[in-house]
């Protein structure tokens, strides 16, 4: 931990990046250094208590690290607005802390993440944090999208919600590095843990990491400490044998894809009526030509 | 979102849907009434009233409400009122006292003495009732998060004055569940707060049997935006939650239910309100007897007080508020309220003047003694519309209560923020209806006068020196009290709070006697129980 | 986004903090406004009750908001608004647009203006007007 964090500066930079058009991103990110700050992702269905868990985890880890947090909330498709920070805010929790928390709206992203998320994370990397926590919206295919953006991915579940079956079907189970059974004081927690271990044993990953199952409750500080320790163990494991490099390549692919998808979506949205009534092949070519002639599109302001 | 709201509403509509959302028949006839459900006043299920002779036996209590700045000022005012023959006093506390902060706490400083009296320790309570015989008056405290402490302090003051506790009478609001969703003076998480409330009620039932240790309030959720149906439903659900807790802590429903009372607003519209109270009386009696097997009629009686006014009063054309309050008071009378507080017509924009306060009082007196509406108990009972609406209201209330049960009960609904979210959504609906003219407010969205409303002036009593004097007195108490007693008192309190099988009130009384402050007692309990974490959900 | 959509959501792209400073527990006004601002296209953060001026300023800065709305019905608006304005200044955030809602007597309007408050919204005001005035205040802040 070196210089004090320039909160105002970071706040402004994140706002500019969140608002950045595709062309803006291409222009701006030339300045951002490639960071190597460990990233922890928390994902899971709405209602499992991700936010309160993330808050307590952050507080626990903030004792020895400078933590930055990003939390994503869904944008309303009707108005384009959002209620962010729909959660127990960190300042509710006792103790002196300096954790930086930024709430982001998903905007046009439909994968459970947010527009320009890779750029926002890069800005967090560059800001001098020791660690960044990311909390996803928890709907859609958030688990798939967020996998490449973080180093350690924790899937948060809770007893009784029937998530496991859904998670199995979607192939999500194989993506997580840790399984967290939150609200473990509710009935069924132990059974859920056993079921996950069973599924896990069948789908053992090639790289040899055995995702642990951690039972947590926000009312029990010891469980938070255990979760934190499990994260530490995964980070150690990653550090050995250079496993983070593969992650970096996936990250770069996702970033490129996200930017292009956004640009293509913008172009499709603004296609003329008469183009859309043409045969599909004609539409496709028209779009590709427009993209080729103006790949980045306009700057935003 | 349509631009309907941009256009000035053209004409007020009456429509056939009441404010509570109930369809009102244009013509009500005998086919709408089931005569077997009407019943008799004074007998189960008390739809027509809890007393067979209604107000002719005993008129409702005219309870007018006022708060003053410092303990000394309040004391002077109380002595004046007592000289004038009033026997009921009401005490409003400032926000620091309500929320459990001492006057020197940084969160408290801007709020000391603003909306009520600062009562940080026994010395202030003694000043408040200096030269007043606590055995001869009834004191009502609007206090919730720190109700147990203020109750303990009141008893400690009585002890010091040599007044036997059995003579004490009055009320503490002591209703934390509504604080979490509509009023905000919560402190501890739900479970320990419920324990504290139950302890206070059970202790009071024994030590101060004439005291009313809880006033379960729907008023605030109504003022926040809930409909009449929801107001009653949330209140009854809260009431049952308290009954459950009291039973859990060893109480006997036949006994404690006699000292449970309720508190509501009366807004528009007229027949909704009457139906609401009749349905509430019927439901409470049925729930207590069916679910808990209570048999003593006195324990099944739904006793309630009301406020007429609140957010139904507006600043533009303020004299119109007198009419609103009159209609609301009539609804309260036809609904059978045990006590009525009428707001002054200017409360929306200033501290009531002597004139406006007097008119509020006269409103009740004219209705009581000139209009004749109080002569016959439940005078509208048996009427086609009133009975139909009572039945409809009852059905709707049951629906809402079922939804809360399905969610997992009030405590869970509160911890998750579900109830709060419902109230916020309803409030937004209500506001949008007013903005668009669907709901008519005479003088605000129709029948306006362009010379505008009186502007909001000072709505709170502000003596700029009061806060400093309060702090000074506070410091002096802290310096001159016996610090060993303080520490022993707090240690014993902490230990008792950690256990589930003791009543906390005696420990609070001991602390009060040692001049432990409200903030110190609250901090001690927070150390044991933690603080409520508000679920911010929209 | 076409013109009709732009008109219905004049706060699109704006980030707004709605806060409850001090001990006042009446939060319905704040919640209604937060929801309405969201429906007008804004990204809104609502702090919940019992926030200190320092906490409010900290959240405003970290979240990079364009405006902070303080809802106060306890009569302590003079002290609390002044404290929040001071904390924002200390965090180099005096450019954030400040607005206030609640029970604000007419005689205090000038004082609040002097603290930099750019909108005072009382509970009888139609929500559409709150949105319009806030959008105008933010537009002139952008232009400045």
Arrangement of strands in the largest sheet of chain A: 4-2-5-1-6-7-8
Question: What is the distance, rounded to the nearest whole angstrom, between the alpha carbons of the first and last residues of chain A?
Answer: 36 Å
How would you sum up the major sheet of chain A? Answer: 7 strands, parallel
How many beta-strand runs of chain B? 9
Largest sheet of chain B: 5 strands, parallel
Mean pLDDT of chain B: 92
Percent helix of chain B, as a range, is 40-55%
Percentage of residues in DSSP E strands of chain A: 5-15%
Provide the low-confidence segments of chain B as ranges.
Answer: 1-7
Task: Give me the oligomer status.
Answer: heterotrimer
Low-confidence parts of chain A, pLDDT < 50 over ≥5 residues? none
Radius of gyration of chain A: 20 Å
Query: Which term fits the overall shape of chain B?
Result: globular
Task: Write up this protein.
The complex is a heterotrimer of chains A (301), B (538) and C (144). A seven-stranded parallel β-sheet of chain A has the order 4-2-5-1-6-7-8, with helices on both faces. Chain A has helices spanning 7-19, 22-28, 50-62, 117-126, 142-147, 163-169, 189-202, 221-239, 244-269, 273-276, 280-293, and strands at 39-43, 67-73, 82-84, 100-105, 131-135, 152-157, 178-181, 213-215. Chain A has eleven helices and eight strands. The radius of gyration of chain A is 20 Å and the shape is globular. Chain A is an alpha/beta fold and 301 residues long. Chain B has 21 helices and nine strands. Chain B starts with 53 loop residues before the first helix and ends in a 9-residue tail after the last helix. The model of chain B is unreliable at 1-7 (pLDDT under 50). Chain C is of the alpha/beta class and 144 residues long. In chain C, 45% of the residues lie in helices and 18% in strands. The longest helix of chain C has 17 residues, at 127-143. The radius of gyration of chain C is 14 Å and the shape is globular. Classes of the chains: A alpha/beta (301), B alpha/beta (538), C alpha/beta (144). Chains in contact: A-B, A-C, B-C. Chains B and C meet through α3, α6 and α17 of B and α2 and α4 of C. β3 (82-84) of chain A pairs parallel with β2 of chain C.
